[in-house]
Amino acid sequence: MRRLLGLWVFCTTLAQAHPLAIAVGESMPPFFIEGDPPSGLELDIVKGALEGSGHQLQPLFVPYGRAERLYLAGRVDAYATTERKSAGFYSLPHITYENVAVTLKSNALALGSLEQLAGMRVHAFQHARGLLGASFAGVVKKMASYQERGRLEDSLRMLEKGRLDVVVVDINILRYLQRKGVVGEGLAVHFLFPTLHYRILFRDKGERDDFNKGLERLRRSGDYYRLQERYLGN
């Protein structure tokens, strides 16, 4: 009888779970990894923070710029962002991105300032010009060439072949691709950019509050840091 009652409670909880559509970044390992089911560090943090809150995460993988448009159009309940320009309720920071300038070790470039990127061939992640500050946006105009791409695996391969001078990418994405053998170890990193702290912007205050409570619980339990170790290594 107790087993039947427990099953009834479990099924009732699932039935009452409120679907929560959150726009997240395109497949960008190790943060977002599309699959069945999807996974990744950032996705698992969001999922873990919502666990037990009565909300069922429905992730929507979209380019960074499109996420805001979907939110403003009322087609998603929330989205991940670094900016504070849209109306709604912002969560506590749930993840940090550490972007670096990547060059070939064999070129022995000593990059100590953004101005040194002038005259170089550069690829960066989507919306980097807007997210990395006015100084970076200013030096973009002085580069020999500049492109922004959703995924940077091909750009890093171009760098290895000498067809680019610099790729701007999160250091954990770079390390993940190196561990997977997508790119080699002959790359140097230069810390020129501010750290980006991402938050979830919710339309509903109660959902934001539930997320914040879950995020704090995830950190207190140590599960947050175990997820970091799982996806990023030591």
TrEMBL record:
The protein's matches in InterPro entries, at most eight in alphabetical order, are given as: Solute-binding_3/MltF_N (IPR001638)
Keyword Glycoprotein present in the record's keywords: the answer is: no
- Segments traversing the membrane: none
UniProt keywords (A-Z) are:
Signal
Q: Does the keyword Signal apply?
A: yes
Q: Which residues form a coiled coil?
A: none
Signal peptide per UniProt: 1-17
Domain Solute-binding protein family 3/N-terminal: where? 19-234
Q: Which family does it belong to?
A: Belongs to the bacterial solute-binding protein 3 family.
Q: What is this protein called?
A: ABC-type amino acid transport/signal transduction systems
This protein's species is Aeromonas schubertii
Question: What high-level taxonomic lineage is stated for the organism?
Answer: Bacteria, Pseudomonadati, Pseudomonadota, Gammaproteobacteria, Aeromonadales
